[in-house]
Specification:
This protein has 473 residues and is α+β, with helices and mostly antiparallel strands. Helix content is 51%, strand content 18%. It has three domains: 167 residues, PAS domain (Beta-Lactamase); 84 residues, Orthogonal Bundle (Helix Hairpins); 154 residues, 2-Layer Sandwich (Heat Shock Protein 90). Helix 6 runs parallel beside helix 7. The longest helix has 51 residues.
Length: 473
C-alpha cells in the first residue's frame, strides 16, 4: 500500500497544530481570567480611592441628596451607548457600581443601578458577595475622617463574559487563518520534497545504459544517505555491466585463435591417411581443447572477482591456511609429476589460522602453483613456504623457471600480458586473478628472483593480515 508523504505530513501537522492551538486557547483563557481579575480588582481599588477623595467631610446630607438626584438622572441600564468601531452595545450594567454608607449603615448615595442591599461583606478590602442570585466582586474601604464606608463592586458574570469574548476572538482568528495555514504547509512540504521529484525525474528520464551516479551536491541532508546508497548501487551495476562486457570481449579475443586452431586440426585429421599422423593431430586437437577450457575457466573466475568492492567476498570464515595449501599442492601433484617436478612445502607444523574467503584463496594458491608448474623446466623444484607473523601470514611460492626481468614485473599482473619469448602455454590471466584476490583480502604482494645472482627463477610473496573482516561482512 502506497501513501503520499505530502498528505501524511499535512494531515499530521494540522492535527498537531489543532491540538497545540486548542491547548493554547484553553491556557490563554485561564491565564486571561486571572489577569482580567487582577486588572479589574485594581480598577475597583482605584475607583474606591477616587470616591474617597471626592466625598469629603464638608458634604452635608443635603449635598449628598443632590448628588443622588444627579446620579439618578444619568441614563439607566436600558440606555445604550454606541461606538462606530464596535458593533456590540455597552450598557451601564457592564460598568462598576458603588455605594456610600454612614456609620449607622444608612445608604447615603449609590450608582443608578446599584442594589439597595449592601454590596460589601463587611470586611475591608476585596470580598465576594451574592445578592439575588448574582455574585459580586466588591472593594470596601472606610474614610478615616467621615467614617463613610465606600463600596465599589462589579458583577462576576461581566468578567466571565470578557474572558469568554477574548477566547472566542482567539478561536475565530484561529479558524480564519486555518485554511491559509494548511495551504502554506502544503506549499512548504511540496518545496521540501522537490529534491525527491528532481532525483526521480533525473533517474526516470535517463537512458537505460546510463549508469552514472546521481548528482548529490544540492541534496538535503535527510535524503543524502538514500542518494549515496543509490549511487553505490549504480556504481555496482555499472561495474557488473562493464565486467560482463569485458568478459564477452575477452572471451571473443582469446577463443578466436584456439577455435580456429581446433577447426584447422580437425580438418587436417580428416585428410590424414596415416593412423600415426592422425593420432598426433587428434592429440593436438585435445591439447587445444584443454587450453580453451583453461582460458574459459580463467575468464569465468576473473569475471566473478571484483577487487574494487570489498562486499564481493561472501562466506567469510576462519580456516587453516596450512591445510588449504596442502590440499592445493595435492591437486597439482599429477601435473608436477608429469614434468618430474618436486614440490616442497616449508611450514610450521601447527595450524595457521587466517580469516577470509577460503574458496577464493584456494583459487589464488592453485593459480600460483599452476604458474610455477607451467613455467618451470622438467626435473626442477618448486618451494612453497608459509610463515607466521604476529599479525599476518606470508605465502611464498618460488620456482626454477626463467624468471621475470625486473623491467616487466609491474606488467605481469595485467590481463593477457605475457613476457616475450615465453614458450609456455597460458592465457595471461593467472596472475591477474591472483592480484584481484589478494587485493580483496588486503594482501601485500612482492616479487623477486629465486636466484638473485643469475636473475632466474620466480618468487612471489603475499602477506595476508590475520583478521581483515568483521562479523558483519
Amino acid at each position: 500500500m502506497t501513501y503520499s508523504i505530502r498528505k501524511f505530513l499535512l494531515f499530521n501537522l494540522l492535527i498537531w497544530i489543532t491540538v497545540t492551538t486548542t491547548l493554547t486557547v484553553i491556557g490563554n483563557y485561564m491565564l486571561d481570567q486571572r489577569d482580567i481579575e487582577q486588572h479589574l480588582d485594581g480598577l475597583l481599588g482605584q475607583s474606591g480611592l477616587v470616591f474617597q477623595a471626592l466625598i469629603g467631610p464638608e458634604f452635608t446630607k443635603r449635598d449628598l441628596l443632590q448628588i443622588q438626584e444627579q446620579l439618578n438622572d444619568i441614563p439607566n441600564a436600558q440606555h445604550q451607548f454606541s461606538r462606530p468601531d464596535v458593533k456590540k452595545t455597552l450598557t451601564l450594567e457592564d460598568k462598576f457600581q458603588f455605594q456610600v454608607w454612614d456609620v449607622k449603615d444608612n445608604l447615603l448615595i449609590r450608582s443608578a443601578n446599584a442594589p439597595l442591599e449592601t454590596l460589601s461583606s463587611g470586611e475591608e478590602g476585596f470580598s465576594n458577595i451574592k445578592i439575588k442570585g448574582n455574585t459580586w466582586r466588591s472593594f470596601t474601604m472606610t474614610d478615616a475622617d467621615t467614617h463613610f464606608k465606600i463600596v465599589v463592586a462589579e458583577r462576576f458574570d461581566s468578567r466571565v463574559k470578557l474572558a469568554r469574548s477574548i477566547a472566542r476572538d482567539d478561536i475565530f482568528i484561529m479558524l480564519l487563518i486555518y485554511p491559509l495555514l494548511g495551504f502554506m504547509i502544503w506549499i512548504t512540504i511540496g518545496k521540501g520534497l522537490s529534491p525527491l521529484k528532481k532525483i526521480a525525474y533525473e533517474v526516470s528520464n535517463r537512458d537505460r545504459s546510463n549508469l552514472s551516479i546521481v548528482d548529490s551536491t544540492s541534496v538535503p541532508i535527510e535524503i543524502s544517505a538514500l542518494v549515496d546508497e543509490l549511487n553505490k548501487l549504480l556504481t555496482r551495476l555499472q561495474s557488473a555491466f562493464e565486467r560482463e562486457k569485458r568478459f564477452a570481449a575477452d572471451a571473443a579475443h582469446e577463443l578466436r585463435t584456439p577455435l580456429a586452431a581446433l577447426k584447422s586440426q580437425a580438418q587436417l585429421a580428416l585428410r590424414l591417411k596415416d593412423p600415426e599422423e592422425r593420432k598426433e593431430s587428434l592429440n593436438k586437437l585435445i591439447s587445444i581443447a584443454d587450453r580453451s577450457t583453461h582460458i574459459v575457466q580463467q575468464l569465468l573466475t576473473l569475471s566473478r572477482i571484483v577487487p574494487e568492492e570489498a562486499y564481493a567476498l561472501t562466506d567469510i570464515s576462519t580456516f587453516d591456511m596450512r591445510r588449504l595449501t596442502v590440499d592445493e599442492i595435492t591437486d597439482v601433484v599429477p601435473k608436477a609429476l608429469a614434468k618430474n617436478i618436486d614440490i616442497e612445502l616449508i611450514s610450521p607444523e601447527h595450524a595457521l589460522a587466517l580469516q577470509g574467503q577460503m574458496t577464493s584463496l584456494s583459487i589464488l594458491i592453485r593459480n600460483l602453483l599452476d604458474n610455477a608448474v607451467r613455467y618451470s623446466p622438467p626435473n626442477s623444484n618448486i618451494w612453497v613456504r608459509l610463515e607466521e607473523k604476529p599479525h599476518a601470514i606470508v605465502l611464498q611460492v618460488s620456482d626454477n623457471g626463467p624468471g621475470v626481468p625486473p623491467a616487466y614485473r609491474k606488467r605481469i599482473f595485467e590481463r593477457f600480458y605475457r613476457v616475450l619469448g615465453n614458450k609456455a602455454h597460458g592465457s595471461g590471466l593467472g596472475l591477474a586473478i591472483v592480484q584481484q584476490i589478494a587485493d580483496l583480502h588486503k594482501g601485500i604482494i612482492t616479487l623477486e628472483s629465486t636466484h638473485p645472482e643469475t636473475d632466474t627463477g620466480f618468487c612471489i610473496n603475499i602477506e595476508f593480515p590475520k583478521t581483515r573482516f568483521n562479523k558483519k561482512n
